[in-house]
Amino acid sequence: MTNQDFRVKTLGLFAKAEFINENIDFAKAEINLSLQTSKGENYYIISISIYECNTKVHYITFTSAAYNALDLLRDISDLLDNYIEGIREVI
In this predicted model, what pLDDT tens digit does every residue of 68-77 receive, in sequence order? Predict the structure, then answer.
């Protein structure tokens, strides 16, 4: 996966986190994406934290260079979708 592909796929995660943060009080999602350079190579680092009642319940960080980056992005997307589904059931 190229860095650009990775960045594009993370954009959907930001939208999901924003929806969670705007629609529920007891859970919050934080996503940080940064571009790093090591040994002349550029790669992204993404960190995701999910809090419930001010307690961190999920935390993951990985790079775009990870061999399973696409699988990790899918897993995180599914996790955020579960929160969104729960919000929509309550609203």
Answer: 999 999 999 9
